[in-house]
């Protein structure tokens, strides 16, 4: 029985604190990971000082600064960074958008065809470009396909997320989880206590066979039972004001001849103040003006389109000498300023600097030259007093802006634009080159010519040299929050091993599962990892669970790699909560889902794939299957 040492107690407390912070997210998960890393590095020196002062008997063993910083030099971290760059190179050619347009052409208004085409395309694609990037690219097209085909977007967006996770299990580069699991396995393989195990760095296609089975079973579920369980939360519509239910909050008012506003600038008369009013546009004769409206001087007869509630409107009419225009304000009314799009739906992207900020704190109106009409988070729609609401990944904003601003938002990293704009700067002439580079990366790593980290870096360099990406674009391509998360959680796995906490936890699992055969213990690890991943980061789950899984495999006399696969596959398929996986958060707002929708659709899928994956691993590693 492993001893409960001070190191075990301290690292356990750190893990519990990290789990709470990961689950509740009072700060972003990457900041939590960095906090964990720094805390682990402080334990030994601080406890040493306390021991010198006589407070502690001996210093607490934890990790060295070199081990604490090892996450930044980890092959997993660098590989994931390079994969972001490779995915961006492919995205900039427009090839995935072309696939999305193809979906629209071949599916028409058949929901069955739409669903089949979407899951049939996104799953294989996600095996070779980052699955998070694949969903971000395809989300606008899927929404357009749904609305054009008179299908609720909710019926397609959750399957889009789930299908991308299936694809992530196909290859080593399908998801950052796989890369991290391979790196942890390679590091453990060098430790003397694991010398007799079959641990090793994973090959590019080492688990592809199992991934294909998981993908096919998952796709069959989504096309049958999953289709029946997936709700139609948002009706198909071409009018965004109707979709967000903002019609009652939009109105037009005309400035009377005797109004005290005449002659004053808009910013002095209407923009500043405590009233919950947003100016959307100014109609003056045949001209329609959008932001910036502040510098314009108000004239008699001017008509303003406002977003406000009825009580505030009545107060405004009483004070300011305005007349209500009794006409409905819909999307067509808000799109009359310019030839392009003025009213769009955008989703807060992962890694966006706006996460945790409010519209006020980032000066949204001034920064983007745009106005937010409504905010949707799952089923909740906020149509008033939105300015102080902290933004989260997956929040959907209904935005009115000049066409130029819409195009700038589409090109930026803060948001994912739902719906296509007419102008794109895709480098379609580079499509063949970009695909060839990715194929080369996969081939070099798959054939063992180069390690995956070297192959991926070579491919990233090739993307720039060939002009698929500009040098400055590689920095924008990387999701730095994911990189910091990886660098921060890797030392936690080292601390679990070094203090003996992993061995102690493994003994507890074996003891509690003593009546189960090896395949039963394998299923327990899949389930534990899946449940953990549904509330915290998938990468954190891998780091926490793999050392325990390997220790358990040794205790029950099974393949360590088999247990590694169980943890890896479970961490790559978190279906039951919107926070379990980034792609689930992407579709949470655009799909208008409830939290319980993920349990209803994802729960049975999680159990189904637990059985399929466990049996598949047992067959691969000759683990006896009771009959």
Automatic annotation (TrEMBL):
The lineage of its organism: Archaea, Methanobacteriati, Methanobacteriota, Stenosarchaea group, Halobacteria. It comes from Halolamina pelagica. Keywords: Membrane, Repeat, Transmembrane, Transmembrane helix, Transport. The chain crosses the membrane at residues 33-57, 69-86, 115-139, 160-181, 201-223, 433-458, 478-496, 508-528, 562-581, 601-621. It comes from the Archaea. This is Di-and tricarboxylate transporter. One of its GO terms (molecular function) is monoatomic cation transmembrane transporter activity. GO terms for cellular component: plasma membrane. The keyword Repeat applies.
């Amino acid at each position: 029985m492993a001893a409960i040492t001070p190191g075990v107690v301290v690292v356990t407390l750190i893990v519990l604190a990290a789990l709470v912070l990961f689950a509740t997210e009072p700060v972003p998960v990457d900041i939590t990971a960095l906090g964990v890393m720094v805390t682990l590095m402080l334990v030994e020196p601080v406890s040493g000082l306390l021991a010198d002062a006589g407070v502690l008997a001996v210093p607490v063993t934890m990790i060295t600064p070199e081990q604490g910083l090892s996450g930044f030099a980890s092959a997993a971290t660098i590989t994931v960074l390079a994969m972001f760059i490779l995915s961006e190179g492919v995205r900039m050619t427009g090839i995935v958008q072309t696939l999305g347009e193809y979906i629209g052409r071949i599916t028409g208004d058949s929901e069955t065809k739409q669903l089949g085409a979407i899951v049939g395309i996104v799953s294989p694609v996600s095996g070779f470009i980052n699955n998070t990037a694949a969903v971000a690219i395809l989300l606008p097209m899927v929404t357009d396909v749904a609305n054009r085909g008179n299908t609720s977007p909710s019926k397609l967006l959750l399957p889009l997320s789930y299908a991308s996770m299936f694809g992530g299990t196909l290859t080593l580069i399908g998801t950052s989880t796989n890369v991290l699991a391979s790196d942890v396995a390679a590091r453990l393989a060098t430790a003397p206590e694991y010398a007799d195990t079959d641990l090793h760095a994973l090959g590019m296609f080492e688990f592809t066979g199992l991934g294909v089975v998981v993908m096919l079973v998952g796709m069959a579920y989504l096309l049958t039972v999953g289709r029946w369980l997936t709700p139609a939360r948002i009706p198909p519509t071409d009018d965004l004001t109707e979709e967000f239910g903002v019609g009652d909050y939009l109105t037009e008012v005309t400035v009377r001849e005797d109004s005290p506003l005449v002659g004053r600038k808009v910013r002095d008369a209407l923009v500043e103040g405590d009233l919950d009013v947003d100016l959307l546009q100014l109609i003056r004769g045949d001209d329609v003006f959008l932001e910036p409206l502040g510098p314009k001087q108000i004239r008699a007869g001017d008509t303003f389109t406002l977003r406000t509630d009825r009580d505030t409107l009545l107060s405004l009419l009483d004070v300011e000498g305005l007349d209500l225009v009794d006409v409905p304000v819909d999307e067509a009314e808000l799109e009359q300023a310019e030839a392009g799009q003025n009213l769009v739906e955008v989703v807060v992207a992962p890694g966006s600097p706006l996460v945790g900020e409010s519209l006020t704190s980032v000066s949204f109106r001034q920064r983007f030259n745009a106005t937010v009409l409504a905010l949707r988070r799952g089923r909740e729609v906020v149509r008033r007093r939105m300015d102080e609401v902290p933004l989260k990944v997956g929040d959907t904003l209904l935005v009115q802006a000049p066409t130029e601003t819409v195009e700038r938002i589409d090109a930026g990293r803060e948001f994912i634009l739902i719906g296509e704009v007419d102008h794109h700067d895709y480098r379609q002439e580079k499509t063949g080159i970009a695909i060839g580079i990715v194929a080369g990366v996969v081939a070099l790593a798959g054939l063992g010519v180069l390690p995956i980290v070297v192959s991926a870096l070579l491919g990233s360099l090739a993307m720039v040299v060939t002009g698929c990406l500009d040098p400055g674009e590689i920095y924008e391509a990387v999701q730095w929050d994911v990189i910091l998360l990886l660098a921060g959680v890797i030392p936690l796995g080292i601390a679990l091993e070094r203090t003996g906490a992993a061995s102690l936890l493994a003994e507890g699992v074996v003891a509690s599962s003593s009546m189960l055969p090896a395949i039963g213990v394998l299923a327990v690890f899949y389930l534990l990892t899946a449940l953990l991943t549904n509330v915290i980061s998938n990468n954190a789950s891998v780091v926490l669970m793999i050392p325990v899984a390997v220790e358990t495999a040794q205790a029950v006399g099974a393949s360590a790699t088999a247990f590694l696969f169980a943890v890896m596959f479970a961490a790559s398929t978190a279906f039951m909560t919107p926070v379990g996986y980034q792609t689930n958060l992407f579709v949470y707002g655009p799909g208008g889902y409830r939290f319980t929708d993920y349990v209803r659709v994802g729960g049975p899928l999680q159990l189904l794939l637990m059985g399929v994956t466990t049996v598949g691993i047992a067959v691969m590693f000759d683990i006896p299957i009771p009959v």
